[in-house]
User: Fold this.
Amino acid sequence: MLNFNTGRIFLQCYGTSCFIAGTYITPFLLRSMSARGFTTLCNLGLIIAKCMRMSERMAIYFSFTIPALPGVNGAAASALKGLQSQHAVAAGFGKGEFSAWTNNLRAFMTALLPMLLGNAYALLKRSGRYPGPAWLVPAVVGALIPELLTWRLSDEQLRPPAAKAAAPQPEPKPEPVPEPVPEVAKEEEGDVVAG
Assistant:
């Protein structure tokens, strides 16, 4: 579908789009939208973009970067990342521990999604059909499922956790140390105790 020059132009345009989105568009939207609004906008844009990549028309195929711009390269989760960390700390997780959990989950999905996409592509190609519908796999796994999960959250869960009142806690009283019992002088044989 793509020859070398077309692929080169596509990568240049896509890289420029990612730079513009990360530098200007995403920060602007994060400042001006709620966490749910930003996440929904990005996920819907990614779903539309993946559906555009199913097209056999080059103009539509290359235009996918426009709706994908705010959420491209994992930016769709930007509004939720800070909230996740705050809720994890409030629940007793260490910041490093929670970061490790989320990074491992991302690594797992980074390994799983290309496998699913590649197998869908190969299945369609082997059956003699146009392989464009394989892009439904990342649309569902990478945008639709996260959007459905986001909508399951209440508005309260999408707010930073309430700061616990910093009431001074009384210091624990030290346990009383028993006073040493004076040793009673033992009478040895032959000693006379005067009384």
Remarks:
- Residues 143 and 149 are 10 Å apart (CA to CA).
- The mean pLDDT is 84.
